[in-house]
Amino acid sequence: MAPPPAVPLGVPVLRRLADLLTIGRALLGLPLLLALSAGYSGLAWGLLLLGGLSDAADGALARSAGGGSVWGARLDPLTDKILISAPLIWLAALGVLPIWAVWLLLARELLISGWRAGQGSGGPASLAGKAKTILQFLALLLLLWPADWTLGVPAGAAGGFGLPVLMQVIGWWLFWPSLLLALSSAWGYLRQGRIGEGM
Predict the structure, then answer these.
(1) Tell me: the pLDDT tens digits for 133-153?
(2) Cα torsion at 181, 183, 188, 194 (round to 10°)?
(3) CA distances (Å), origin 76, targets 17, 29, 66, 118, 198
(4) Which strand (E) or helix (H) includes residue 86?
């Protein structure tokens, strides 16, 4: 019987680093919510950006290792949901986003997380799922743009709204395509029978 192929020395290290970044992203949710509650909007924005960058980084590390661990594949989408839940709940509480839309999005995420938990491979995200995550992060970053971050743009500029309001308006409009992508990808899983058949 032939011996198993040798694993390059750096591969376990890269996978471990990717998993550590995934865990770190899950831990950002609570301080992000606390920063929002305390009025530290700039800190909250930075934490959300850090979470989005860590998502990109752990994906790059996993690809460099020829694929991440099954454990990481299961945990990665769950940590994304933990991170985005904090600003979504905050924005719904403020009335910036309708509570029904946030409920739909979170219900979808729980449904797909339950499906992934039963997959031997961890149920890697589809292209539509990845696009949805990117769009969600972008929409939330714009919606949480701090009111005092004008970047030197006069209040009468940027369409007469001022830069912070303009950013938040763009973020509000980007939220809806992200919700549609989330629901359509969930429908794709249901239509193909992947959830019920455990494919």
Answers:
(1) 889 999 999 999 998 888 776
(2) 130
(3) 13, 14, 16, 15, 20
(4) helix 70-94
Q: 12, 24, 117, 15: which is closest to 59 by C-alpha? A: 15
Q: Enumerate residues 6+ apart whose C-beta is below 8 A from 25.
A: 51, 54, 55, 58, 79, 80, 82, 83
Listed residue (36, 149, 152, 118) closest to 84, CA to CA: 36
Model confidence pTM above 0.85: no
- Of the CA atoms within 13 Å of residue 123, those in its CB half-sphere come to 21
Any idea what DSSP says for residue 5? Answer: P
Query: Where is average pLDDT lowest: 5-19, 67-81, 128-142, 167-181?
Result: 5-19
